[in-house]
Amino acid sequence: MNYFNDVATLARKDLLLELRARDTLPAMLLFVVAALVVFHFALPAEAGDLAGLGLLWVAIIFTALLGLSRAWVAEREQGVLDGLVLSPADRSAIWVGKAISSLAFLVLAEAIALPAFWIFFTGLDAATIAGVLLADIGLCSVGAFVAAMSTATRARELLLPVLFLPLAIPLVVGGVGSSVVDDPARYLAFLGLYDCLFATICWASFEYVVTE
Amino acid sequence: MSDKYVAAAYLVVFTAVLVYVVIIGTKLARLEAALAELVERVRARG
Amino acid sequence: MLPPLAVVLFATAISLIFFWVPEDAEDPAQRIFYFHVPIALTAYSCFGWGAWKALRVLGKRDERADVESYVAIHQGTIFGALTLVTGSLWARATWGHWWLWSSRQLVLFLVLFLFYCAYFMLRFSVEPGPRRANLSAVYALFGVVLTPVSFLAIRLAEDFIHPTVFTRDGPQMTASMFTTFCVSLAAMLSLFATFYSIELAGKRIDARIRELREALS
Description:
The structure holds three protein chains of three kinds. Chain B starts with a helix and ends with a helix. Chain B is rod-shaped and about 65 Å long. Chain B has one helix at residues 3-45. The longest helix of chain B is centred in the middle third of the chain and has 43 residues, at 3-45. In chain B, 93% of the residues lie in helices and 0% in strands. Chain C starts with a helix and ends with a helix.
């Protein structure tokens, strides 16, 4: 189907660009590991595992922010976004492609970060990993969308955290809950609900973000 | 003792409304001045 | 403009009169609720109205709806700030703390307040025009989706953040308390309506004057 082809092409373009430039992913990796080290020094001795798990989610949120701030840079600098909008592709496909490539970067960064967390702090169970993956989908959907909005403004990257963080709060709750609570099913379900809801409105309204 | 806080709540809301009215009032004055200036310019044109 | 003003004065006066009538319940600071909850509900109405106008911006390409949406959200943010302040005063009066993470409504308002403050940062970072109208409208609609999702999140978060007893705002209300509450709610809503129409009129006059200036020079 044409739509999926467009999405795949766009996502592949981003991944290829990153493969050649190799700037975003290494920065995210270094950032997340350095953040974990900072957290070790930030936590008092009696803090315990739960505090560490909470801070893992802080690390994930800010690593995602780091990656997302670069998400639309190439499109903006080369004027590619106008070209994409003019192309016969469905506008929402642009967002889907970007969300998928952001998700790929975030998951790759976590592939290093989670084992590092395991080593530095405490073990992670299946519920936590599931929570991380579900939250990633939400983070990248909403993040790619909001990053596109901030690209259209004068303030650009300055605006991204301000727009992103209030929307990310429910994901933090869902994620921390799935890590910390004995019965994580509710939190995982909530993360799924968030993903469905916000992906839908992002998909439906991206058209208005890139056109006049 | 807690009457103090009830009074404070009243005061906060009242002050907010007052501040808003003052802001609106100054804006209205500014608009009237601008309108008067424009009327003058139209008259000067003849 | 005069009728809404009359309603406001009338309704607010009655609220004030009523306040002296019903006696304090077990909780003497409970009187703050007659402000706090109506202001909170009015703020929700503001955001809802702003989102409705935002829908018209996107759906009907209604240019005037952009200003209307902006004014509604502006009012909502003001009422939201008042909600936080009155809520904080109530928390201090009843529980001794300036903030209660255990109060769902307060925490929800904090999240929404942050969200809508970002609305203004977004709006003032874009040149006026259809692009700004679209971005603002989309963001306003996101707020409507975020509200129930955040409320659910805050409820879920209570399990691992505050296992302590959480407050239940609003005890059983007697008839007189309920009446006072309703009158106060009506007063707040008419206050919103008045400010909304005034601010809107002000913005329209501003635009007209600018047009006139350009036509004359």
